[in-house]
Each structure stands twice: as C-alpha cells, then as structure tokens.
Amino acid sequence: MIRLGLRTTARREFVDLTGRLQDAVRQHGWRDGVLHVYCPHTTAGVTINEGADPSVQRDILATLARLVPHRGDYQHAEGNSDAHVQSSLVGAGAWVPVEDGALALGTWQAVFFCEFDGPRSRSVWLQFAVSQP
Amino acid sequence: MIRLGLRTTARREFVDLTGRLQDAVRQHGWRDGVLHVYCPHTTAGVTINEGADPSVQRDILATLARLVPHRGDYQHAEGNSDAHVQSSLVGAGAWVPVEDGALALGTWQAVFFCEFDGPRSRSVWLQFAVSQP
Amino acid sequence: MIRLGLRTTARREFVDLTGRLQDAVRQHGWRDGVLHVYCPHTTAGVTINEGADPSVQRDILATLARLVPHRGDYQHAEGNSDAHVQSSLVGAGAWVPVEDGALALGTWQAVFFCEFDGPRSRSVWLQFAVSQP
C-alpha cells in the first residue's frame, strides 16, 4: 500500500490530489484497473468533483457547512462533530478508473482530499486493483 | 473499460441502469467479482436504492433538492452548484457484487444513474475486478 | 461471496462490524488488497467513522435525522423514505484496505453498519479484491 502525506492549511479546504495520483500510477507501472484513494482519518474524506473552477470547491464546502454547522446540538466533546458527519457524507474513499497507465477521469473531474478539521498532517493510502477485460 | 451511453430527459431524474449492467456482465463473461459503475460527470452520480416503487426515487431527488436548492448562496457562475454538491453527496461511483455471472443485488435494490443537471448526453464507465475466494 | 448476518435492535443505530470483518479476513486467508463491505438493503448503509467515542455515532445519526426527518413531504407509502434517503447519503458499501492479512484502518476508524429502519434481520456481503504491488 502506498501512503502519500499531505499538510492542510485551513480548518476546511479541498486539496487537489489528481497530479500526485497520476504520478503514483505511472511510478508503480499500474496499467488497467481501478485506483483506490483511501482517507484513514475520521474528520476528512475524499471526493471527485470539478477541478476547473475553484468556486465549485467553495460551494461544496459552504453547503456542507450550512447543512452541518460547526456548532450545534452535538454530544461529542471535541467540538468537531460537524467534520465527522461531513466525512460520512462524502465518504472515506473514492475509486478512480485507470486505463493504459493513466487516470481515466471525466473532462472536468479532479480528485480531492476533503479537510474538515484542519490544519493537520494527513495522508491518503493508495491501492490498485486490476480490472478484467 | 466499457463505456455505456445514455440520454437524460429532465434536469433531475434517476435512470435505472440495472438491466444494462446485467447485460454487460453477461456479454463480457464476468463471473465472480465486483462491478465498478463510474460516472465521469461532475453534475451527476450513481446510487443504489429501491427499484420497485418509483416514489422512492422521487423522494430521494426531492429531499436532495430541499437540502441543496437550485438557487442559493453559490459562487460558481454556471447556475448548477446544486448539482455539483449533490454529486459529491451520492458519489461518483458505485460497486455491485457479481456472483456466478450475475449481478448480486439485494431484493429491492437497483442501480441508478442520478442526473442532477440534465437533460444531457451522459455515460457510465464499467470495470470488473475479480474477487478472491 | 461471504454473507454475515446481524440483528439490529432499534429503528436507527450503528453496529460496529470491525471485529467480524477482521475475523473474516483472517479466516479466508486474505492478505493484501481491499475488502468490499456491501449492504444489500435499501434502508441501511455502511460507513467508516470514529469507533472510540460512541457520541460520534450518535451525532451522525442525529444529524442525518435532522436533515432527513422521519416524517416529511414524502410520497413513498411505507413511511421509511427517510431511511432510503439516508442510505443513499452514506452509501450502500465501503471498501477497507487490507495489508499483510489485517484490516488497515486509520487509528480512530471503525466500520459501521448503519441501520435506518430497524429493528430487522440484516446482512452484509463481503468480497476481497487483491491489490497489485
């Protein structure tokens, strides 16, 4: 399993992982299959969405914060229940198709690490499953 | 990777993919593993839910629209931020168990393409990962 | 495909599957890859989140119930549309990394069956996909 480290710089932000994922695919000689991008943290997640216009990232983060605000009727004492809930909403992992040694994303897609309780040192774990023709 | 095309006919709708997925599994001779159903679009998604009563699809779509309305405090200029957010909530892909050459879904389950910003020409990409006994 | 049965005891609750998943991985000799944990039900789901403090589970369940209440403007006649919507929000399945024959979860992570319309007899289906080094 490949572990990539990253450092987030705000409480809530998206970090575009696409370039580093492509590098890992190339480096490991992965050809045709599906790349698992796994978040081992419970106050963060991974999502695939538009990479071209940063205002999309902003709108997703702002909407999640409106639906699940930082302060609310929570019992978890650490003050980051919003981040736990948002983690389960976007999910702890995503799978990206790989074709002929390259990430096969849709035209506008990028893969984002979703930080909901930073800034922190984080990591994502990568695995590759071969697909059968 | 197999690419299936589809045409959606409304801004927001579910399209049941189950029959076409079953056909693809049979056609490619996939036997025991997991089928990846991937949405390469950033204003759509894939989900697994009840296929028997269409009112379930309606209730899911209506609830997502109530939580993330079409018009709101968004910065993305294209007027479809709701669709981007809903895409990250349901997810860009789903995995369906395949056993002995057939989709292994629960009794009430169907696999849906979730259109959040149609009508458009869309596609889903299929990959099959063999499972180890 | 491995089928694990479970019995839920409330309308809405999380059931920690982590120990049983670890047992299944060991029992089947699965070494390095990714474990698919699939929920064949349309009013339940699977999520990965914090296992240490039970108040996190409570906060996730309570927030989902606030966003998608039991009674609302639903058309599905069975009175459990909230459960169907919540199922699509957390997702019908999750994938857990397996390394050297053991679940590779983050420090605080556990894998939960999410019951949204119990109590019921439920099951989760397990498959293992080998990863390529």
Structure explained in plain terms:
- 3 copies of one chain form a homotrimer.
- Chain A has a single domain, classed as Jelly Rolls.
- Helices cover 26% and strands 37% of the residues of chain A.
- The first copy, chain A, contains 3 helices and 8 strands.
- Chains in contact: A-B, A-C, B-C.
Summarize the structure.
Three copies of one chain form a homotrimer. Chain A has 133 residues and is α+β, with helices and mostly antiparallel strands.
Going by helix content, strand content and strand pairing, the class of chain A is alpha+beta
Residues in helix, % of chain A: 25-40%
Cα end-to-end separation of chain A: 24 Å
Question: How many runs of DSSP E, i.e. beta strands of chain A?
Answer: 8
The strand line-up of the biggest sheet of chain A is: 1-8-3-5-6
Work out the helix count of chain A. 3
The largest chain-to-chain contact, stated as pair and per-chain residue counts, equals: A-B, 36 and 34 residues
Count of the domains of chain A: 1
Rounded mean pLDDT of chain A is 97
**For the CA atoms, what is the radius of gyration of chain A?**
15 Å
CATH-defined topology of chain A? Jelly Rolls
| Name of the CATH superfamily of chain A | YjbQ-like
Quote the beta fraction of chain A: 35-45%
Largest sheet of chain A, described in full?
A: 5 strands, antiparallel
Instruction: Tell me which CATH architecture of chain A applies here.
Output: Sandwich
CATH class of chain A: Mainly Beta
SSE string of chain A, helix = H, strand = E?
A: EEHEEHHEEEE
Shape of chain A: elongated
